[in-house]
Amino acid sequence: MTGFLLRRLLLAVPTLLGVTVVVFATVALVPGDPLTALLGPGAPPEARHELSERLGLDEPLPLRYLGWLGGVAGGDLGVSISAQRPVAELLGSALGQTLLLAGAAFLLVLAGGVLLGALGALRPNGPLGRLCDALGTLAVSAPQYSVALLLIAVFAVNLRWLPAGGTHDVFGGGGAGDLLRHLVLPAVAAALVPLGLTAKVFRAALSTVLAGELADSLRARGLSRFAVLRHCVHNASPALLTIGGLQLAYLLEGVVFVETLFAWPGVGRLLYDALTARDLPLVQGGVLVVAVAFVGINLLVDAAHAAIDPRVRS
Q1: In this predicted structure, what is the pLDDT of residue 311?
Q2: Which of 247, 283, 248, 246 lies closest to 268, judged by CA?
Q3: Which is nearest to 244 in space by CA: 133, 107, 115, 58?
Q4: What pLDDT does 171 receive?
Q5: DSSP per position, the chain
Q6: What is the model's pLDDT at position 168?
């Protein structure tokens, strides 16, 4: 197991290095001028030259990359151009909010995906199984942005059961209860598509195990239906683990629309505002953090998969 983890960690090093190259080159080559965004289109050349030197934008692209990479290796992601604050400080506070939203959505994904997938596998030709399959297809097919708008219109505007955005009421004591009320709608909107995908993958995996020799041998030994199902779920868990890890990574990097629409102060909304302001250091740092989180989650999924299935370690 230790050798397997070491191999995965060594493979992650060139992956992360490649991520830094892609992130820096993509952001640096995006059309637009950060100097114009900061100084305005009518700024004199002297001011533009002075600001370009101060921000290091006058250096060749390879030198800028090496300088940025050296800072990243030392934990320095640079200074935000628009906010004039360290990028790591801005990302630290925003990352906590994104992890909270992604964690809540992921719990909904696991609970709903396992429930719909298991019911669909146990009753594949019955009304309940068909209903679960239809709900999974609807969750995958429904546009996330449209569903979020529908949730706001129904539960926030018409019924007024839940707030439409933010993390706390403007006037109020705040607290965990207030945060939970603000968390419900964005978590449901973010979890919809991953829930449908998880349900479909888990249903297919569990159906295959239930129709295989393992289930037949367990029934022949006289085990109860619940015991047979428990063993079959264990054998189908690697597929659930894989799709669950991918959906968690998707939630960390794919909630930009949700955070923007619900005014949730996470990394997605921070990146959206940074792109609008052409804040290159903040965009580079934010995308890098999300990419590192994606690689880290895949490492954890590989480790958990190897712990469950010994064949993976070989």
Answers
A1: 65
A2: 283
A3: 107
A4: 66
A5: -HHHHHHHHHHHHHHHHHHHHHHHHHHHHSSS-HHHHHH-TT--HHHHHHHHHHHTTTS-HHHHHHHHHHHHHTT---B-TTT-SBHHHHHHHHHHHHHHHHHHHHHHHHHHHHHHHHHHHHSTTSHHHHHHHHHHHHHHHS-HHHHHHHHIIIIIIIS--S-SSSSS-SSS---HHHHHHHHHHHHHHHHHHHHHHHHHHHHHHHHHHHTSHHHHHHHHTT--HHHHHHHHHHHHHHHHHHHHHHHHHHHHHS-HHHHHHTT--SHHHHHHHHHHTT-HHHHHHHHHHHHHHHHHHHHHHHHHHHHH-HHHH-
A6: 77
Per-block mean pLDDT, blocks of 10 residues, the chain (314 long): 73 80 76 66 76 72 81 81 83 86 90 89 83 85 82 88 80 73 89 88 87 82 82 82 81 77 85 80 84 81 72 62
Domains by residue range for the chain, with CATH:
2-73 (no CATH), 94-313 (1.10.3720.10)
Per-residue pLDDT, 283? 84
Tell me the whole-structure pTM to 2 decimals: 0.80
CA distance 197 to 84: 41
